[in-house]
Amino acid sequence: MHESIASALYKGYTRKLIQDGFQGELLPANTRAAWLRQVVKMQAKDRSSVAMAPPAFVGRGKNAELYIHGVYYPSTEIADGEKITPQWYGYAIRARAKDFTIESQPLPVIITNHLVQRTMQRLDVAHPRQALLSLQSAFLASLLLEPPSKGHALLPARGGAVIAVPDRDYPMCWAMLTFVNKERLSVQQMREVLDVGNQIVKHTSNFFRADVARKLACAA
Fold first, then answer.
1. What H or E segment, with its residue span, contains residue 28?
2. 55-65: per-residue pLDDT in tens?
3. Which of 28, 80, 118, 162 qualifies as a FRET site for 135, CA 20 to 30 Å off?
4. Is the pLDDT of residue 51 over 60?
5. What is the pLDDT of residue 135?
6. How many angstroms separate the CA atoms of 210 and 73, rounded?
7. Which range is least confidently modeled, 118-127, 156-165, 186-195, 198-207?
């Protein structure tokens, strides 16, 4: 896909996100389990957010909790009285069946507009959500690994890798900058990407354990 086409598609999509705002709706539910499922459906219907990992259900009955990890695009440039750059910010949601409450916390990851556009271009993907979902491995890596103290890191993604650095304002937060096709990676770079991928696989079985999920949901 040509760069100009990817840019036009992406800008049109994000412009509508800002205009529409939050689109999710939480419908009534008769049981705690049904209410948790409604939370999942609400997030799926909200076009301004994308779940980057499967929903994690922890516990049973009144002690059941739901964790959702993803990214969202703010519908306003102002947050807490401070102007922010509209791009994709990591978030975690914890829904508690006991008292029917939903808590949201930031996650230390930012996916830049440039990365989404470049992913659309390089993978020939017409929809920004598809491009974001192709970055799931990089998203998981950003939650499991700490940003390098200096320089950059290569995080695995479908069809290539993501160049990520510590955010300028928040050094403990990953800032994902751009996408590189696998054909353009050197042998050493491919080894680096595979090494990170192996670390993700190693931790995947534990990723949605209750203690890990709570830790992620409380990350700031």
1. none
2. 888 888 888 89
3. 80
4. yes
5. 94
6. 27
7. 198-207
DSSP, residue by residue, 186-218: -HHHHHHHHHHHHHHHHHHHHHTSHHHHHHHHT
Q: pLDDT confidence of 24, banded at 50, 70, 90?
A: low
Q: Please name which of 143, 75, 77 lies closest in space to residue 106, comparing C-alpha atoms.
A: 143
Question: Which segments of 102-155 does DSSP mark as H helices, in order?
Answer: 113-123, 128-133, 136-144
Query: What is the pLDDT, as a whole number, of residue 202?
Result: 66
> 128-134: long-range contacts at Cβ-Cβ below 8 A with a sequence spacing of 24 or more?
128/9, 128/10, 128/13, 128/14, 129/50, 132/50, 132/52, 132/71, 132/88, 133/50, 133/52, 134/158, 134/159
Q: CA-to-CA distance for 16 and 174, rounded, in angstroms? A: 26
Name the residue ranges covered by the structural domains of the chain: 3-217
The DSSP H or E segment spanning 155 is strand 153-157
Q: Which pairs with CB-CB distance under 8 Å and at least 24 residues apart come from 170-174? A: 170/108, 171/147, 172/108, 172/146, 172/147, 173/108, 173/109, 173/110, 173/147, 174/108, 174/109, 174/110, 174/142, 174/147
Q: What is the mean pLDDT of residues 169-198?
A: 88
Distances in whole angstroms, Cα of residue 201 to Cα of each of 22, 134, 195:
33, 17, 10
All residues at 6 or more sequence positions from 178 whose CB lies less than 8 Å from its CB, including other chains: 112, 114, 115, 118, 162, 163
Tokens encoding 214: 């709570």
Asked if residue 189 lies in contact with residue 154, where contact means CB atoms within 8 angstroms, the answer is yes
